[in-house]
Amino acid sequence: MEGKLALVTGASSGIGEALCRDLVSRGWAVVGIARTGEALNQIQKNLGSLFTPITCDVSDRASIERVSKSLLVEQKCPSLFFLNAGIAGEKAVENPEKFDLSLHDKIMAVNYFGVLAWVEFWEQPALANGGAQFIATSSVNAIFAPPSGSAYAASKAAVAKAFEGLSLTYFDTNLSFSVVYPGPVNTPGLKGTLPFTWEPEWMAKYMIECALKGKSRCEPSAFYAVLMRLLRVLPKNLVMNLLKKL
Ligand SMILES: NC(=O)c1ccc[n+]([C@@H]2O[C@H](COP(=O)([O-])OP(=O)(O)OC[C@H]3O[C@@H](n4cnc5c(N)ncnc54)[C@H](OP(=O)(O)O)[C@@H]3O)[C@@H](O)[C@H]2O)c1
């Protein structure tokens, strides 16, 4: 199993779609994963034969296993895994008047277990095939959890911590793990308008370069890196006032 093959989850939209475009423009073959077949097929029409669309719900482990096994049967073993699919934006906003654990279940199933299930399946095939890099799209909300975003922030912090641990667990092997902490990116997954918002194309380019350099931790926005750490230590009333101004 040779050549440049990448797998991208959340490929039908936003950052994932931009990752697919950028990787294909660099000569990578890309397997694009999402639930919406129509959107994936449209992307395939634009990108051509280097892009393979596959529908899969990443919260369904049997589905991940089925897709992964079918790739192995075709002797396809990716060396880059952009594990980017996520529930974000409006879909992740919590009702401040009624705590709902089922939203935590739903978000963790996609944003946390929907990342680690790929690692579980591909660990051994990738080790045997000369190695692979797993890149998780975390968020600056892994550093600071905003109001009504406890489940989202927890899922992004959890996946980042899991990858930190895995990068040390496998440090002397040919598997590596990277975490990217994007600030706001102009996609359907962004709630509202925020300063210093990146375009998905810039974020994709940044993430690919970060991955190709083998970095284990990448924070694209200096503004949000500082702001998020500040928000963690300021008094709550000041934090809420600042958030209203953003
Ligand atoms: N935009 C931002 O400001 C921002 C900032 C920090 C981090 N992020 C993270 O970046 C990642 C991409 O988000 P985005 O902004 O590009 O949002 P987006 O445009 O809404 O894209 C989300 C992608 O995830 C896929 N997805 C969602 N649930 C899925 C499931 N159960 N199974 C398979 N695919 C699923 C969606 O495809 P289908 O609906 O077709 O399945 C879609 O392709 C997310 O992990 C998000 O948390 C975004």
Short précis:
The protein is built from nine helices and seven strands, in the order βαβαβαβααβαβαβαα.
Question: In terms of topology, how is this protein built?
Answer:
Layout: E1 5-9, H1 14-25, E2 29-34, H2 37-47, E3 51-55, H3 61-73, E4 80-83, H4 101-111, H5 113-128, E5 132-137, H6 150-169, E6 175-180, H7 200-212, E7 217-218, H8 222-233, H9 236-245
Parallel strand pairs: 1-2, 1-4, 2-3, 4-5, 5-6, 6-7
Helix pairs in contact: 1-7, 3-5, 4-6
Bound molecules: NADP nicotinamide-adenine-dinucleotide phosphate (NAP).
NADP nicotinamide-adenine-dinucleotide phosphate binds at residues 9-16, 34-36, 39, 57-59, 84-88, 110, 137, 139, 182, 184-185, 187-190.
Please explain how this structure is put together.
The protein is α/β, with parallel strands linked by helices and 246 residues long. The protein has a single domain (5-221), classed as NAD(P)-binding Rossmann-like Domain (Rossmann fold, 3-Layer(aba) Sandwich). The chain has 9 helices and 7 strands; from the N terminus they run βαβαβαβααβαβαβαα. The protein has a 7-stranded parallel sheet, sandwiched between helices. Helix 1 packs across helix 7, helix 3 (61-73) packs parallel to helix 5 and helix 4 packs parallel to helix 6 (150-169). The longest helix has 20 residues, at 150-169. The chain is globular, with a radius of gyration of 18 Å. The relative contact order is 0.13. NADP nicotinamide-adenine-dinucleotide phosphate binds next to helix 1.
